[in-house]
Design goal:
With 402 residues, this protein is mainly alpha-helical. The chain is 81% helix and 1% strand.
Length: 402
């Protein structure tokens, strides 16, 4: 794999760390600014909304510059946002910093996926995309726990300062290692927008929303589920999330490897198994050991869908894939927001802390159904126009009739 993928992975590591580390530091941030925990939660919501809207916006703004230069500009935006968060004198300023940093997120992964795929041979594209996303998954295993520990020990501002420094390393790596590949000739914004007329692109994005939404339906409420149902101590949630992160790392690499060999079968297996495991989590959540195993499996199966879904979008939006790739990153966050809301509804309805697992199972099953529909439509489009009935093509039967 080219060294340029390492630079992209470092950038992804920094972005993954800043996205998730705030969840472990909300009490400290809320205390410093004198706001409630729910108000501090706007730092999570604001970031997610920034990713959703920033992905297409920043990609459109970057259509006139090279992909390498746009990646560098995005890392610069990421650095500024995290420095603003680290130095923010008021909560409102920190919220602005979070939103500024989030604007880089979707476009970085969207454009980075296109660049990663272009760096390797056609039969290694999904593996290259997976290598870039490895930075995001490793962030959940290393960056987030360490960032939380640093923030709780010496101050959350130090954590965001370190994340900004990671952005500087990522920017330097991109500047030094990523080749300045020429833009595709004749590709304009209208060509990028035309990809959204392709039903296969829309189906892949819908699979992203439902499939990863299934994961976050369960993981969003993992703390109350594990402490109130499984009987874990509050402090155990951190290492349970590390298990989830380890599962993500393994699933991402496996998904990338097998998606290059058999993309749709990889989606069938991962989405089907994810639906089953999420449904079983309603039972295994009552046992500590089984809970831990299930959490790792959810991480693995959930992220095994990421490289094939991202490659599916690139394949179907062939020729002008950058905007579609970035919007698909936003689709992950849309799935996260949708599933967290639905999971909260079933808990509020009095169905218990394990009820979101049924929501997740239903969402994953819906994604599997869409994958089967997508493949059926693709097969139908590939069939010859001649309709065969009773062993003879329609034209032959018409001729015989005359």
């Amino acid at each position: 794999m080219p060294l340029a993928l390492l630079a992209l992975a470092i950038g992804a590591f920094g972005i993954g760390t800043t996205e998730f580390v705030i969840m472990g530091l909300l009490p400290e941030v809320a205390g410093d600014y004198g706001v409630s925990i729910p108000i501090a939660g706007y730092l999570v919501t604001g970031y997610a909304l920034g990713v959703m809207f920033g992905a297409p916006l920043m990609t459109v703004l970057g259509t006139r510059v090279s992909r390498k230069r746009m990646l560098m500009l995005l890392m610069g935006l990421f650095i500024v946002g995290n420095l603003l968060s680290a130095l923010a004198p008021a909560f409102s300023v920190m919220l602005i910093g979070r939103i500024v940093a989030s604007l880089a997120h979707g476009a970085f992964f969207g454009i980075g996926a296109v660049v990663a795929a272009d760096l390797v041979a056609p039969d290694k594209k999904a593996g290259a995309i997976a290598m870039m996303f490895t930075g995001l998954t490793v962030a959940n295993v290393v960056g987030v726990p360490l960032g939380t520990l640093v923030g709780q020990s010496v101050g959350w501002r130090v954590t965001f300062g370190i994340v900004a420094a990671l952005g500087v390393v990522g920017l330097a790596g991109i500047a030094r290692l990523v080749p300045d590949m020429p833009k595709a000739e004749g590709v304009r914004l209208r060509h990028e927008l035309a990809a959204f007329k392709n039903v296969q692109v829309l189906l892949a994005m819908a699979m992203t929303v439902l499939g990863f939404g299934g994961v976050f339906a369960a993981i969003t409420y993992i703390a109350p589920m594990m402490t109130h149902v499984a009987g874990f101590a509050d402090g155990s949630v951190t290492w349970l999330l590390v298990l989830f992160g380890l599962g993500m790392v393994g699933g991402n690499l496996i998904g990338g490897r097998f998606a290059d060999r058999a993309l749709m079968p990889m989606l069938y297996v991962s989405l089907g198994a994810l639906a089953v495991v999420l449904a079983l989590f309603t039972v295994t959540a009552h046992d500590k050991l089984l809970s831990a195993v299930t959490i790792a499996l959810i991480g693995a199966l959930g992220f095994a869908t990421v490289p094939p879904l991202q490659k599916r979008v690139l394949d179907q939006a062939h020729g002008a894939p950058t905007l579609a790739s970035a919007v698909n990153i936003g689709a992950f966050n849309l799935g996260n927001a949708l599933s967290a809301w639905l999971g909260g509804l079933v808990i509020a309805a009095g169905l218990g802390y394990t009820a979101p697992n049924w929501v997740g199972a239903a969402l994953a099953a819906g994604a599997l159904l869409l994958a089967l529909v997508s493949a059926a439509l693709e097969r139908r489009a590939a069939e010859p126009s001649t309709v065969v009935t009773g062993g003879a093509p329609a034209e032959q039967r018409a001729a015989a009739h005359h």
